[in-house]
Structures are given as structure tokens and as C-alpha cells.
Amino acid sequence: MSAAQVNRATASAAQERLAGLATPPGALGRLGEAGVWLAGVQGACPPRPVDDVRIVVFAGDHGVVDHGVTAFPSSVTPLMVRAFVAGSAGACVLARQHGAQLRVVDVSVDDDLPDLPPAVSAGKVMRGSGAIHLADAMTTQQCEQALVLGARLADEAIDDGADLLIGGDMGIGNTTPAAALIGASLGVPAAEITGRGTGVDDAGLSRKEQVIATALQRAGARAHDPMQRLSALGGADLAAHTGFLVRAAERGVPVLLDGVISVACALVAEDLQPGSVAWFAAGHRSPEPAQSLALDKLGLVPLLDLGMRLGEGSGAVAAIPLLRSASALLTDVALLSDVLGS
Predict the structure, then answer these.
(1) Which catalytic residues are annotated (predicted)?
(2) Is the whole-model pTM more than 0.85?
(3) Which of 25, 290, 293, 294 could form a disulfide linkage to 263, CB 3.0–4.6 angstroms apart?
(4) Cα separation of 170 and 145, whole Å?
């Protein structure tokens, strides 16, 4: 399959409709632009309401946690997966607030989670991904398995009626492989992409930068190939997230991206399936420097900039009302020609 083609004629019609609204030129700002994007990806002008939003949170552990790159231990990951199942995690609260459905999937948590419903771990690829500065995150076979899992999860949501998808993340230490993926994708050194993640101090930030630099050097020229890049520097949870994004673009269903994790996966998705980015919008801007660099490369301007760094898909979920507002404005605001009676 290849990425579906956005309906350019519809997007053009939406742009003309925006220009013809009874508002000053440019007065709707990013909301107007979002409405035009939504019309294009839906193939409908004015755009349809965004009613059925599905969030899939990809959970996994990362070997780099044992090397001082994060403020929390790996034991927090399974605890948070349980919180998602219980509906008490931050993204769950926001999902309920905005009428979205959320599902958490254990892709590579370093715990068997025997107390949770079997469906949570039914597609599990591995227990924890490798420490990327010392070894590959996973084998190529495990990477392919994770990509297939992500694609299947997208298919299930779309087949069940989803008209907007969001990929979330849960995994202590996951901003380290995400930054490494962005660095390898863009050819940017570790010093420019390393952020504080969950809030490491200066010493932790220095360790994290060194881990990323070593990982990029270890991956070497393999990073030019997106599959090898994912296998060497990512993790099974990030690979599944990438497969989710690729399949959404192939099926022609829009995606609202979250923070540094989902944007790192979006970069790889675009390399695996050129044209995918046309189906992506950016929900929010994270404080992580790597995310801003990746958004610039993808040509995406985020809807929100609130300093959020929770992950989980929470920033994208918080932006759902803005996308719904964009749809409503482009649909229901009067045309200037009608107001003037001409």
C-alpha cells in the first residue's frame, strides 16, 4: 500500500470558503488553517464534525533507564499501564472530558502484567527494548512484528468507525530513543536534540546527551534506512506507534500527533511511506527540543503550546476541542456574500 492522496480540490474549496467567511482576512488564524486541513483529509467541504476519536497508547520499557537518563525507574511503567486500565491516567481524564475512546496496549513492558485483562498484552512483542548506546533496541524481526501490531491496531480503530486517530505513549526513558530517532532522521547531533524528559537535573541531562551521542555513533550509516533506524535506536513501542501512523495514512484517516515520541515516529513513518505527513496535524508543542526540530522538518505548526510534557497522547487530546472548533467555524460561520446580500 501507499499513502492515500489528500483531496486537493476539496482543500482548495475549503481555502476559498475560509477566505469568503464573514470574518476579517486571517482572523481565525490557526483554527482556519486547521479547518482547511480537516476538509482536505476528509474530502468534504465544509468539513464533517470530528465525532469518533480513538487514542491508542503504546507502552514499553527501555534499557537506557538503567544508565541514568531519566528521573524515574522502569517500575513506574507497569504501574502507569494499570492506571490507564483503571482510567486514572492524565490522558484518560482528558479523553473522557472530550468524548474520545482510549486503549492502552502493552508492546514491550518489562512486566507480564498478569493482573490485567489479557487483551492489554495480547500483541506483546518483547519485555523491554535494549539500551540503544550498547546494543540495538530490537531485532529486525521484532521491529517488523511491532510495525504489524501498530497497523492492526489502526485497522481495528478505523474499521470500528474512527474519524480521527491519536497515538499516545507510556514508557519510562522513552524520550531518549525518540530523540535519537529524530537526530538520526535529521542528521542532528545529540547536543541539539537532548531534552530533560521527565525532569532530569543537569547531571542527568549530560548523561542522557552522552547516551544519545553514543547511540547515534553506534548506529552509524544504518540510520539512513528507516527500518534499521527503528531497530537500532527506537524500541518496540515506538515501532508499533510508527506502524499505526503509516496505516492511518494508507487508509486515509487523519492523525493528531502528540509530543516528541509521536513526532519521532511520524518522521520515520514519512520515510517508510512518503506522503504520510499530509494526514498528520500537530496537537501541541513539547518543551523537548527534538520535537520542535522534527515539526519544522515535517512542516507542521502545533495547535497548542502549553509547555506540556506529560506524554500519553495528552497534548493531542487537549487539542481535540480546537480541531472540532475549526470544523464548526468553517461549516457554520456565514459567508460574507450572504451577509451583504450579494
Answers:
(1) 312 (proton acceptor)
(2) yes
(3) 294
(4) 19
Contacts of 39 (CB under 8 A, 6+ apart): 10, 11, 13, 14, 17, 45, 46, 47, 330
Enumerate the active-site residues. 312
Q: Is residue 273 part of a domain?
A: yes
For 192, phi then psi, to 5°, come to -95, -10
Q: How far is CA 331 from the centre of its chain?
A: 27
Closest CA to 184 of 230, 131, 138: 230
**Which among 210, 260, 239, 223 has a CA at the least distance from the CA of 67?**
210
pLDDT digits (tens, 9 = 90+) for 190-230: 999 999 998 999 999 999 999 999 999 999 999 999 999 99
Domain tally, the chain: 2
What grid cell was written down for 40?
A: 482536505
| Residue 88 CB coordination number (10 Å) | 11
Coil vs helix vs strand at 70: coil
Q: Are 191 and 279 in a shared domain?
A: yes
CATH of the domain at 147: 3.40.50.10210
> Hey, what's the cell of 127?
519485555
